[in-house]
Amino acid sequence: MSLWQRYDAMLFDIDGVIMGTTSLHAAAWARVFEEFLLTCSRDDGRSFEPFAPDADYVRYIGGRAPHDAVAAFLGSRGIDLPRGYPDDPPDARTRCGLANRKSAVFAATLADHGVEVFPDAVALLDVLAYAGKQLAVISASEGCEALLERAGLLDRFSVRVTGADGARRDPAGEPAPDALLKAADLLGVYAVDAIVFDDSVAGVRAGRAGGFGLVIGVDRRDAAAELAGNGADLVVRDLREVITMEGPAPARRMPRVRRPWETKRLFEAILLVPPAEGFGDDAVLGEEVAAVLGRLREHHVDVAVTEPGEDPAPRLGRMVGAAEQRGVGPGLVLVTGWLRTLVPPAGAERASVVSVLPDPPPGPFPPSMRWTGGGAPTCLALLRQQAERRDAGLVPGVDLDPAWTVTVHGDDPRHRRAHQSLLTIADTRFGTRGVREEEGLGSLPRVLAVGVFDDTTTPSTLLQGPTWTGLHLLEPLDISRDRRTLDLRGGVLVRELAAEPVPLRTLRFASLARPGCFAMRAEGAVDWLHTGHSLIPPVTDGTFVRTQLGHLSRAQTETGAGGLIAATTVQRERNARGRRVVERLAFYAADPDGRPAMDTASAGLAEADRLGFEALLAEHRTAWARRWDDALVCIDGDPDAQLAVRFSLFQLMANVPTDGEAAVGARGVSGASYRGHVFWDADVFALPFFAATCPPAARAMLEYRLRRLGPAYRAAAERHLRGVRFPWESARTGVDVTPRVDRPPQGPPIPITTGEHEEHIVADVAWAAWQYAAWTGDEQFLHGAGRPLLLDTARYWASRVKMDGAGRGHIDDVIGPDEYHEHVDDDVFTNVLARWNLRRAAALAEEIIRHDRAVPDDDVRPADMTGGGGQPLDDAPRGDGVAPGEVDEWRRVADALVDNYDPDTGRYEQFHGYATLEPLVIRDLATTAPVAADLLFGRERIARSQIIKQPDVLMLHHLVPEETAPGSLGPNLTFYEPRCAHASSLSPAIHAALFARDGRPDEALDLFRIACRLDLDNLTGTTAAGLHLATFGGVWQALAFGFLGVRPLARALLVDPRIPRTWQRVQMRLRFHGARLDIQASPDAFRITSNAPADVVLTRRGAPVRVVPGEVRRWRRVGEAGWELA
Amino acid sequence: MTTVLAAVDATAAARPVLQTACRLAHALDADVMALHVGEDPGPARAVAEELGTSLITVSGEPADQIVRIGERPDVALVVVALSGVPARHEPGQTAQAVATRLSKPVLVVPPDSPPRRTFTRVLFPLDGTRGVSAALRPLITTYVAAGFDVIALHVFRPDTVPRFLDSAEDIDVWRAEFLTEHCTDLGIRLATRPGPTADSLLDVAASEDVDVIAMGWRQDFSPHHALVVRKVLTEADRPVALIPLTDESWPRRSVTQTFRDPDVP
Asked: In the prediction, which pLDDT does A873 show?
């Protein structure tokens, strides 16, 4: 048996493998670049090294999508062009424009010169086509079809893909195999069953990264070593070598009966188009079809059959829409039957369409349609395959839609732990990091629970739960071929790894519909896939108890103080279709105070097991679809940013509970960094997203604060202050758990003073409470249960402010958000947010009094005075009533508070004495932000300078713009941005939002992209220890508050978009006062629809415009800053 | 059995050089060979006899002979004096020539610092390039295997400093990831410091009282090169091991910023 016979499909790069177009491409590029560089040279007098058709082609052009090639080559010459749009004219000064120019030149050259077809390629294609292999051709540039047609090779290929479609980088920066995977997808084969032929380094790397079964490098330019070194399994000079090449022994590969068209994908929705005359003639066939469709329905597949004469296109559109409502992408929708032609409606283009008409249908095929012929037997076989695979319990797949999937290719030990964080799946209460099933225990935890701590450590840390994902692989598999994909749309993590005799495939999810429930399926070879214990202990000390009862397992972790995590699993194995298939369901229950939870876990598991894997997956995907329905973000014209935003929101939603209380740690449950402690990250950065898309989650975050009022009263009282003082770092009890000292591995311990001095947290919590009420319109909250969050925080500030002889108020000895400067007086952020807090509280108190809305006692849930299970606190003041004179006092203190504002410059001095510090800017340090300036130059050195860590003054313009001096954004942005190191992961997104508001879209976009890629590219170097949830929240705020200019006001939603020209359209869904709004904005227009009446204003004092259901409200830009209703 | 070769001359530096060689050889379980180049081995022989080691004497140009014998396969390390003059704390001609030409680590011993009693702790500066880490790895492994307390030190530069540092805790994570990338599984400590490089290196060496500072270098003592090495040699009051790096192991960094290390004039 020849090597190629063991594979189902072959994917060919056209340029350089099939045809000698490389030199023509190179010539066309040379011409385009020559002209362009000359123009550049003329414009700015620089001289450029010209394009070298050999060296530069190999280095920058080959294997890249055209606009990427432009970027790579021009980058080498120090030129940066905007990306532009695919339909840019050939003379546009954009990457796409140049690429289009090259296409035009290439087409002209082709017409003049013709094209050389390599005879060895034709010979191989003949053999493969004769053998009935599935063939696809991939080209990095347009014009592929014309070339094939001229060469008479067009009919050899059933799928043609242009590399430009969705080309992008994967998180590790490798050339992404998107085009190859798309081709495999369209052919209906797994990557592991396909061979890739490519002549470029980028191409073989992509083939390798995509997990293809075999990557053959075609050496047309004496580059054999380079191809082999970059991942080609074999390198050939002549493709005819492949025809007779013997492969390694065909090992345990199962003999397979080739079917007319076999797809290994498990479709989630199937539309059957019966013959025009129906199955009426053939009752037996009709019954068989009905039976197999019935089986598929039992497996939760959405099945429909068109009526005789019905146009399948609209039905397909509805089916794709319904699939999306179930969290399933169009790539998992199949249309099959007696199809003459089908033009898929918008959004359904990626559905698979297979015609079984006995004769080829007339006219042009849509690109995604295949004709197999074969009529009824083929159709029935196809449906039966689906049913049989479902019956066998094989691992389902996900739609590899580049707009919704984050894929990690291969394995890089340097990024392994960061990838584990990225691939975390969480259900709002429990998270499982993306650790490979067979990986031994590392140093990092795997399963964590929101708000469940181990209190035996000081300070307390997150308790680690038992791990449920472990499997044994008795043979080492080559994980450099691994492909792991996180499907953001449906919240599913899938893995595919080429192996012999069958690939390893796994799928797991953390049920959003049923928090606590995890599920996994895995399939692999009977010889090497084994299960072992389904629950294994975590890496930490503490008690781990495990019991095994047949296929049921139970395990529990606890440490004696703090919480407890109980887990139970049920596992089933069977051998099917030459594979071992493992299905494991796990149910977790936890108690923060260590009370028994195993019964809850067992009951949860029993219910989950009764439903079964497929029903759990279906309800889970549906739950995700609902969340996305409320939180959807689209950015047309910037697929990278769109994906990064979706990833950010996905992980935010996965890490925050929607009921009870939500202790949202800085890294959620994706990692143990910061020990799960709750910072202002939760209140200020994460909460607004939830307030605007999922109010119950925001409410749960506030509930966390409300249930810890007791310790907060106590903390204030201990300092002889009134009201509440929330802790800078908070865990189970609500007592401050900020570490007091940092002990580096070398050198003296460094005291940490944020716990004692970063007091703005008090006002941050008040801001969060108000933000929640502003978005939801839930007045009852501030008047009732949430009242202490505004009133008692104001009481704190009223007692904390010190008045000087001149009647001015000061807050001394604090740390603001800029932690480079400790022990400062009158930090503007602290002072002004405290002022805002006092004024808001005064307004609220007056409202309560004026409306005489004395809330009956039973409506106000008394604050928890027990300090989270500790001793009752009898003498703590209650936060409900308002004492006479208090409102006046708050106003007086607020008005007296200094804010260091200089009306002449329009600037705030960040704190008292800041202006006298060494006036350094980042550029003076010969570096660029973001940079951890204190590490580079030492803490003391930076503290003596004006370099700041993150926005401090500007944080006010972001959080409470109405509390800052009108017109002061610009001057402060101009002053502080050059001084800002952006060393906090919270920082770039905030400045992005402010630059957008200030009408500086380029700077806004640069910082926005940094925020977007923070974890995806591991920019902090610390993603290994968990995802930066606050940055994710900041990304959302940059879009909503910054680019869309959205703010919740008392009675209306403020909308004032500033969309960068490079974006075509931004779409966001928001909830405002109970209505769900859909806002779509382009640089020059925006439109809003709503499912309930909602008022919109364009300026803070503007006249409201009502948006009512069923009506689209449109505005268009007039002048630079104005909008008019269209 | 590997050998530590000690180059002893007629000056007062002979004793600390040979003492250092003996104690390091003991710690690494190696043999010691004392080498004298020149006509009159008298003072050197006395030191060798006192310390109980054999002495071989050859004639010729000192650096040539030390390098020739140092390149013998069994020699793992050559110990030389920084200079023969106790007061002069800068590399002498012989030390410079040997360190520049020998393909093996050269341990440079200051002539007047108190000899280390035992050798248990070594400091390895890592510049954050994988080449340097890979080149030093075998030696680090040797020290770890010999039971040394190995401290790696990374002094931040603009191209290696973390871009973000939310709080001090993050640096622990960063260090763990740095060790994963550069010294996987060797179980050593990593210290990080702000620049300037030589100052931080000397500072950590002193505060941890390390017995050896082990630095990779490109064996180039020409003007404006090896400024950090020069400064460490001149100011350290303890032995400094210079470990040759090949060009492959240390590709020149392409730092586009014009960051100036204050060590560099």
From this structure: 39
d(CA B215, CA A933): 26
CA gap A888, A834 in Å, rounded: 15
CA distance to A8, A82, A169, A210, A399, per residue, from A162 (Å): 21, 22, 16, 16, 19
Of B12, B16, B69, nearest in space to B237 by CA = B16
**pLDDT of A689:** 98
| Per-residue pLDDT at A990 | 98
DSSP 8-state class, residue A914:
G
**Position B108 pLDDT exceeds 80:** yes
Establish if B149 touches chain A: CB-CB under 8 angstroms.
Answer: no
Choose between B181 and B121: higher pLDDT. Answer: B121
**Contact A742/B169, CB-based, under 8 Å?**
yes
Alpha helix (H) ranges present in B88-129? 93-101
* Catalytic status, residue A819: yes
Q: Between chain A and chain B, how many beta carbons pairs sit less than 8 Å apart? A: 123
Is A701 in contact with A687 (CB distance < 8 Å)? yes
Residue A368 is predicted with a pLDDT of 61
Of A734, A716, A733, which Cα lies nearest the Cα of A725? Answer: A716
- Complete DSSP assignment for A4-20: GGG-SEEEEETBTTTB-
H/E run at residue A633: strand A633-636
ipTM over cut 0.85 = no
Q: Give residue A715's pLDDT.
A: 97
Nearest to B194 among A926, A936, A1024 (CB): A936
Q: A379 and A364 in contact (C-beta within 8 Å)?
A: no
Whole-number Å distance between alpha carbons of A467 and A444: 12
Amino acid at A172: A
- Answer yes or no: is pLDDT of B52 > 70: yes
Q: DSSP letter for A979, please.
A: G
pLDDT tier at B112, thresholds 50, 70, 90: confident
Cα distances (angstroms) measured from residue A80 to each of A83, A84, A140, A186, A817: 9, 12, 21, 35, 34
Alpha-carbon span A24 to A45, nearest angstrom: 30
Q: What is the pLDDT of residues B55-93, one digit of tens each?
A: 888 988 999 999 999 999 899 999 999 987 666 677 888
Check residue A1063 and give left, alpha or beta (phi > 0: left; psi -120 to 50: alpha): beta
| Secondary structure class of A802 (helix, strand, coil) | strand
CA atoms within 13 A on the CB side of A146: 12
Residues of chain A scoring pLDDT < 50? 164-174, 249-260, 853-878
CA-nearest residue of chain B to A940? B194
CB-CB: which of A418, A932, A1025 is closest to B164? A932
Query: Strand ranges (DSSP E) for B110-159?
Result: 121-125, 149-155
A955 neighbors A990 (Cβ within 8 angstroms): yes
* Type of residue found at A812: D
Q: Which of A679, A1017, A1020, A1023 to mutate to test the interface with B (most CBs of B within 10 A)?
A: A1020
Backbone angles phi, psi at A161, to 5 degrees: -130, 135
Q: How far apart are CA A1118 and CA A1124, in angstroms?
A: 7
* d(C-alpha A81, C-alpha A587), whole Å: 52
Is residue A348 a contact partner of residue A320, using CB atoms and an 8 Å limit?
Answer: yes
A1096 and A1055 in contact (C-beta within 8 Å)?
yes
Residue A402 to residue A758: CA distance in whole angstroms? 42
pTM: 0.83
Contacts of A812 (CB under 8 A, 6+ apart): A802, A825, A826
Burial B166-190 (b: 16+ CB within 10 A, else e): bbbbbbbbbbbbbbbbbbeeeebbb
